[in-house]
Amino acid sequence: MKCLNCGSEMMNNLVEIKKKHLSYDICESCGSFWLDAGELNKLAFTVEGNIEYCSRDHEATRDSRPQKNCPRCENMVLDKVSFIGCSDIILDNCRNCGGFWLDGGELDLINKELQKTMRIKGKGFSEFINNVHLPYWYKRVQRKSSETDFMVEVPPIKDANFMAETSYTCPSCGAFLYRYGVFGIEIEGCPKCKGFFSDRDELRRLKDKSIRDSWGTLRWMDDEVEAIEKASLMFSKRLCPKCKGVRFISGNFGDSNIMIDWCPSCHGLWLDKGEFQGIVQFLSEKLIKLSSAEMASKAYQEIKEIWNGTESKISEILDAKAAISTLIAITIFEHPALYKAITSFTKAARSIGLR
Fold first, then answer.
1. pLDDT digits (tens, 9 = 90+) for 254-301
2. Secondary structure class of 182 (helix, strand, coil)
3. Are 96 and 124 in contact (CB under 8 A)?
4. CA–CA separation, 268 vs 243, rounded Å?
5. Cα angle value 312/314/317 (rounded, 5°)
6. Residue 295 CB: number of other CB atoms within 10 A?
7. Does the first or last residue of the chain, that is N or C, have fewer Cβ atoms within 10 Å of its Cβ?
8. Which of 280, 307, 338 corresponds to the end of one domain?
9. 73-94 residue pLDDT tens
10. pTM of the model
11. What are the residues facing 182 on neighbouring strands?
């Protein structure tokens, strides 16, 4: 592995202390780190919970440093992310393999932030990494990164798992499609160009589950999905992989610049590489711009659809619940004093070990 900053050969270190171990890659020229998924939790100061949750917010996207390519995943660009909501610490993270790139000095910034905002249970591996002469080393193996490098498969959607090969051909590059499972849904994806085909109504289900454990759920953001078949579209040169000889119809997703392909026969959708993530980001940004008045109207509509909506009763109830939660969150953000009080309470709770 070459350093993403200075191009030097990086060194892989395997460290063992009693029953604990850590593997990390470091550039001995500029002090930068590559940490695979789970390693930041081990390397940084030890606290309750997972510190590898980072937000892809507006502050992170304003970072002026050039983007880097993931050293583990082919053709994957690292996202700019805010470390646990701290806009002063912007890291590079791969949304496919979960790895982090840390420039020289960023590990110290992370540890200082953890000390400031959370209860530290221990200094973890950091004190051993920063002071190699301590007598606590049990075992340390150092090799060139090129001897330990490996690549991570990039599925069409993050966390999708390979299930089987299919006889369908990719409408974009002609390769045979694979069947993948993700969020309990089966899709046909291309292992070469990373596009994927979703059957009727599956795009709605996929985006429903794309953002979890957050008030910013997209469950009830269905307007653009439902309008796909009603929009003004044009015939594509591509053929539907499931309907012999049927050409896709192409058009924009909502008022975004994302071009999608729709089959007029089976009503399935083809999305090229990155377009699903683009749709999720587009809907997320649209969600952020809603006022509490607009959200109140949408929440009321979702409540009415519990009785007359097109989805199942359980799905409509979950949509309504998500809309009400979003309404509450937007209302809080529109009142700075309330938002400040809640933020202060959250930080205070973290400082005494409450989550």
1. 778 888 899 999 999 999 998 998 888 887 777 766 666 665 666 656
2. strand
3. no
4. 10
5. 110
6. 21
7. C
8. 280
9. 988 899 998 888 766 888 999 9
10. 0.66
11. 185
State the Cα–Cα distance between residues 309 and 122, nearest whole angstrom.
52
Distance CA 227, CA 245 (A): 25
Reduced to 3 states (helix: H, G, I; strand: E, B; else coil), residue 321 is: helix
Indicate whether 169 and 241 sit together in one domain. Answer: yes
Q: If DSSP codes are grouped into helix, strand and coil, which group holds residue 147?
A: helix
Q: Is residue 184 part of a domain?
A: yes
- Residues belonging to the chain: 355
Asked whether residue 347 is assigned to any structural domain, the reply reads no
Residues 77, 198 within the same domain: no
Cβ atoms of 210 and 217 within 8 Å: the answer is no
Domain count, the chain: 2
Instruction: Specify whether 118 is located in the same domain as 188.
Output: no
The answer to whether the beta carbons of residues 280 and 302 sit under 8 Å apart is: no
Q: Is 202 exposed, middle or buried (0-12, 13-18, 19+ CB in 10 A)?
A: middle
User: Nearest Cα to 212, choosing from 182, 237, 242?
Assistant: 182
Tokens of 17: 């202390």
> Half-sphere exposure of residue 139, counting CA atoms within 13 Å on the CB side?
9
pLDDT at residue 18, as a whole number: 65
Are 326 and 347 in contact by the 8 Å Cβ rule? The answer is no
For 101-199, where are the alpha helices, taking DSSP H only?
106-117, 126-130
Residue 17 and residue 142 in one domain: yes
Q: Which amino acid is at 333?
A: F
pLDDT of residue 247: 94
C-alpha 157/C-alpha 159 separation (Å) is 6
> Where would I find the H helices in the chain?
39-43, 58-61, 106-117, 126-130, 202-208, 223-226, 275-288, 292-308, 313-333, 336-351
**What residues pair up with 239 in beta bridges, in sequence order?**
247
DSSP code of 242? Answer: S
Q: Is residue 292 included in any domain, yes or no? A: no
CB 29 within 8 A of CB 6: yes
Q: Which domain holds residue 141?
A: 11-147
C-alpha to C-alpha distance for 229 and 269, rounded to whole angstroms: 10
